[in-house]
Amino acid sequence: MAHEADVLTGPADVPIGKADHYGHNLPLIDGNKSYHQVTEEVFGPTERRPPVAWWIAISITLSMLMVGVWGGYQTVTRGIGTWGLNRTVGWAFDITNFVFWVGIGHAGTLISAILFLFRQRWRTSINRAAEAMTIFAVMCAGTFPIIHMGRPWLAFWATPYPNSRGPLWVNFKSPLLWDVFAISTYFIISLTFWYIGLLPDLATQRDRATTKWKRTLLSLFSLGWNGSNRTWSRYETVYMLLAGLSTPLVVSVHTIVSMDFATSVIPGWHATIFPPYFVAGAVFSGFAMVLTLMIIARKVMNLEEYITTRHLEAMTKVVLATGMIVGTAYATEFFTAWYSGNPYERYVFLNRALGPYAWAYWMMVGCNVLSPQFFWFKKVRTTPWMILILSIFVNIGMWFERFVIIVTSLHRDYLPSSWAMYRPTFVEVAIFIGSFGLFFTLFLLFTRVLPMIAASEVKGVLKNADH
Amino acid sequence: MKTWKSLGERRGLVRIRKPEFDEELPVGESVRQISRRDFFRFSGIGFAAGLALGCKSKVVEKAMPYLNAQEGLTPGVAQWYATVCGGCSAGCGVLAKSRDGRPIKLEGNPDHPVSRGGLCAIGQAQTRGLYDESRLRGPRVDGKDVAWPELDGDLAQRFAELRASGAAVRVLSGTLTSPTLKASIQAFLGTFKDGRLVQADAFSCAALAGAYERTHGQKLIPRYRLEEADLIIGIEADFLGTWIDPVGFTRAYASRRGPDRARPMSKHIQVESGMSLTGSNADERVRLAPSEVLPFLETLAQRLGLALDVGALSSPLMAKAEAIAHALEQHRGHGLVLCGLNDLRAQELCARINHVLGHEGSTVDLANPSLQKQGDDGALEALVREMSQGKVAALVLLGSNPLYDQPVAFAAAFGKVPIRISMALTADESAAQCTHLAPDHHWLETWRDSEPLTGTVALGQPLLNSLFNTRDAVETFGAWSGRPASALQAIQNRWKADVFPRQKNMGDADSFWNATLQKGAAEVGAGTAPRYQEGRVEGTTRAARTAGYELLLYGKVGIGDGRHAHLPFLQELPDPITKATWDNYVQISPAAAARLGLEQGDLLRVRPEGHPLELELPVVVQPGLDDRTLAVALGYGRTAGGKAGLGVGKNAYPWRTFSTGFLAADPAPLQVRKGSGRIQLACTQDHHSLEGRELVREMALAPYLRDPASARPHEPTGPSVYGEHPHGQHRWAMVIDLSACTGCSGCVVGCQMENNIPVVGRDEVARKREMHWLRIDRYYTGSEAEPGVVHQPMMCQQCDQAPCENVCPVLATVHSEEGLNQQVYNRCVGTRYCANNCPYKVRRFNWWEYPHQSELERLGLNPDVTVRSRGVMEKCSFCVQRLMVAKSTAKSEGRDLKDGEALPACMQSCPAQAIVFGDVQDPESRISQVMRDPKRFLVLGELGIGPAVSYLTKIRNGGSISEASPHEASRARPTGGLAIDGGATEAQGGHHGA
What we know:
The complex is a heterodimer of chains A (467) and B (994).
Chain A: H1 2-9, H2 35-47, H3 52-78, H4 93-104, H5 106-117, H6 127-147, H7 175-208, H8 212-221, H9 229-262, H10 274-300, H11 309-340, H12 343-354, H13 358-370, H14 378-381, H15 384-411, H16 426-449, H17 455-461
Helix pairs in contact in A: 3-16, 4-6, 4-10, 4-15, 5-6, 5-9, 5-10, 6-7, 6-16, 7-8, 7-9, 9-10, 10-11, 10-15, 11-12, 12-13, 13-15
Chain B: H1 29-33, H2 36-55, E1 79-84, E2 93-99, E3 102-108, H3 121-124, H4 126-130, E4 140-141, E5 144-145, H5 148-165, E6 168-173, H6 179-190, E7 194-199, H7 206-216, E8 221-224, E9 231-235, H8 246-254, E10 267-272, H9 277-281, E11 284-287, H10 290-303, H11 315-330, E12 335-339, H12 344-356, E13 364-370, H13 377-388, E14 392-398, H14 402-405, H15 408-414, E15 419-422, E16 436-437, E17 448-453, E18 456-460, H16 473-480, H17 487-499, H18 509-519, E19 521-523, E20 550-554, H19 568-571, E21 580-581, E22 586-588, H20 590-596, E23 602-608, E24 615-621, E25 629-633, E26 656-657, E27 664-665, E28 670-678, E29 682-683, E30 698-700, H21 701-706, E31 732-737, H22 746-754, H23 762-766, E32 775-782, E33 787-794, H24 803-807, E34 813-815, E35 821-823, H25 833-836, E36 844-845, H26 855-858, E37 873-874, H27 880-892, H28 905-908, E38 915-919, H29 926-931, E39 936-937, E40 949-952, E41 954-956, H30 982-993
Parallel strand pairs in B: 6-7, 6-14, 9-10, 9-12, 10-11, 14-15, 15-16, 20-25, 22-24, 30-41, 31-40
Antiparallel strand pairs in B: 1-2, 2-3, 4-5, 4-16, 8-13, 17-18, 18-19, 21-29, 22-25, 23-24, 23-28, 26-27, 31-38, 32-33, 34-35, 36-37, 39-40
């Protein structure tokens, strides 16, 4: 075990490129690259015309986005009636997707902030893309609370702005309001953090720009970066501070999202375990999504030497660990339901496992608890296609986790007279597809416009960096 | 509590049936499509119409407001007029609320002797019949719109020929409770040599009247006094649902249901093949096949000492009949046997049983017989014969739609009548085949009188001028007989001549008239009961079949005989038992369903052997139904007469025959075969078991009487995070007595009318999006074959620590200082979080912009209540607008609000008076007293949310039939024996009491 654990757990003070205390000599970047090579390989894609494959990909994702726009149009013009919700199940796809995307958005900040603070230098290859993914995921997530409203044009009422309605204000007791603050804070901090991290690379892009308008634009966005020691020093300080600021957000956002459920009276929602359980789930799903994207991107963009199987392996370990936390949480929920002696609580959990939505529950268990267990094998951890499949399973599983929590708790709550089933309509599915369309479209644009890898940071961890 | 599992959430349903309307819901279109020009155009039309209406030259007739006579009409202030409901022939008294000249709400008139403040679902929906788009706009001749003089001229000529030739003229009507109308018809018919009035009811009680002709020498329907009965045996009589006078019966019945009424709790045993609303309220039920009912009655009669030949009966039923006979013996003089069969032998047995047991004069009042069912099946059959022989030259249909609700033979013969006149309000199935249409006024547009019970007279006054070019039937008959008179004149004349002399309280006719008009009804002298005549019981026994499926045709509470099937509010009212809307279906017992391999929603083809008509109907698996009975509701499958009823369900009326001399379901065994596929029924409740949850508390009478305190629930509540709300001058609360509530669902429609709650249609109900603020949850306990039934009205519980209030991000639902949980529609952004967090699931979301279809239908909306737009949450408000009116009235009169002044709509019209509402800050109020009842419990009180609505434990007068004893009712008795789940009831009582 120790043999493969070094990438993750190797002490931060062991200099890169030297033998670590296991006596192994493992570079973070393969191919014995020179600085120039890194610059060429990272910035090259942003300076060439995209290949055909990219155009095909973006036309697919744009089509998906258009499907979602159609769904949104139906929803806004005709009403929530176009969805499959009913008097008993008032949330389903909408909030499932919301929590799903917020969860996806967790890996970015975790990788950029927490791993930075813990001096996990392997993060440099993936942090840029992971942060971009976070921002896009939060954008996707943010659409759902708005579009799920009966009157989305009044969504601004959920913000505490000075108004002419006398004492009319927002309800600070409402977890939905907490969400408004949590998500917007998270988005702003993540965006800032990402942008600050981009500065040195934007400057490199500026310096390599061939057209005037590109140079002008990039000069503007690189904030006059000149690569001096002073600039670097200030940059490092700000980056460290922002990492510190972002760290609590990793925990707070999903904690607050979980309170939408935890503070309610609905059996299956009303559970104190939710905050840690949701945070673990978010990290779990976030890493799984990073894996999915990275495995494709490194292949398509020839970045295998930057995002090595060792990077992938490190992430699979995070997935394995958080997957088991999530699995433990599932078991704990059952135990609590039984131990509470509360008949409503007991019923909800029995119904989850054996009721009409049992297929969704077992899908969730299969994907989230069983599938990560394959990561115990090094062979699996280091074979990208296997990781890809398993990471997709985890993504599916985590979507179903939110679906199970939301729908199975609501559809059979206290009064059996009101029990009902929920079935999504095509409009809801369309909006869901659209959110993926938005996410991938933004990501594809990102890969062609901005350096996908933090070149300046990678240069710092090259094996020959200190030569 | 022994409970059983669901009949199954339906999965994999293959197709959803036709929606309510052919087109998709025109969501928002009506609003968006109106341009500014259109707006002015419409307003112009409205203004012109207003002017035209105002200019109409008509004698101003003075109507008398109820109680508070006012000089003029104050805009925005409602006036109440007493009148008589025309929804069916029961003749309940109503108070009609008029706002700015249009009636918008009907409520029970507490001063009316029939209904005493109650009103049923059909009655509640009547204003929407007034503003119905399908109403005829004026008279027609051969399909062409004409003016009244033209129609009268045309008919005068034809009638003159008939008078000369001596040809037969017939008027076919439903039961007429208006003596003036009847007199004007007789006057009209008197101008012919061969004129006759035929009354025929879709739900006929002709055999009952026929039986009294045999036993007492006089055709009559007794006035049953359920309030006097210690033991009620209902035999196929759905007296709380659709039989004769459901509201009056419910009121009387409920007055004895419960352990702390003025008189001891009655015991009710229902003998029936279907699962009726009445049966669901019985303390015990005996299930049997329709063909077994007669032998059962015969056995019962024989055990009670009547000499007759008795049909063979299975031994368990024999034992039950004996037990019931024994119980009746014990209650001699205080029991009551009711039979709903339209069968002469059965009714005669029932009449003789009531006689020999000495019920006449106590529970069976023959001195003041009911006039609510006067239909004569024999006369109808004779009419069909005459028509088919071509003997009838002219037929006038008044409140009768025989081409829809009478056997097919009628339709075949109808074509042979040359002059066919209909006075129907809508172009119904029969009107469509008529040569002349002379539409009557809606009953809210006319003067009427009524004598529903002998000696009980009532007056109905118009609430507005007729909306369309219609004419009162009295005036129409007057015109045709050459003696035109206004309806008011006719009624007043008859009133002076016939009614005034019968009463003794008032000196002059005018003050009697005014007093009756104001109050709605008066009681004038009693008659004398006819004498009993000994005799042989009519007919011979018919042996019960022991195999094969048998047909039961029944009426549903909301749809009844189908005459109001075009009112969407009634179509959408969930059946109190099956909870299905917008359809009829074939009910089948769980055992039979298992035998035939059927599940809910499967299509089944049914046909009585030898009958040409086969119907394919969806199956409803109905616990408590007899295993050989297939029950199908009448009143569906309308093909004309209003959009909402078209194509909803199938018409089973053709399955009725005259084979026994009276209209009854075809007695032939049923042929059944599986149909193709399955449909999703639009049910508002799919899950029927309480799952062992203590949401409803039940207790047997005996243990309760032994120790009333044992009923007190143990409801632990923890501290609240937020602390108490401050309370102001009032704090509203509601208590619902589950022993009294019969589940009749009048409140559900009343709530819709009061609060402008939209109808959403079949598809939307199937998607579980009905909008009812008040629903009645129905649960089964005990075994699947013989379940106990509980009805639990459920609306917003106005929690003190409301879970919905915390979670709204924009403060759209907030607590009032009067303890109300208020919904602020304007502020709502529609996150639905409140509905998710509501443990009672009583919040309703506006999924669409629900169209209030037309200008006409919008007239029926309550201007005091906002019509909610799309994307907004709504729910029960405790009728806050009514509380405001009561408070402001008290304030303007400079006094405190009196207890009972502020009533929500559901409570006002509850026929069972099961709801108590009031201010708990007032220690003297009725609600404060009821709040101290040991039977009071909260639903989900353990959540610590402090609901303001509470319930009283349902008390069942369980125990074996033979043990029932009236005068010992106040003494504890063990339950068990023959009782349906007597043991379980006992166990429940003990369990809950623990």
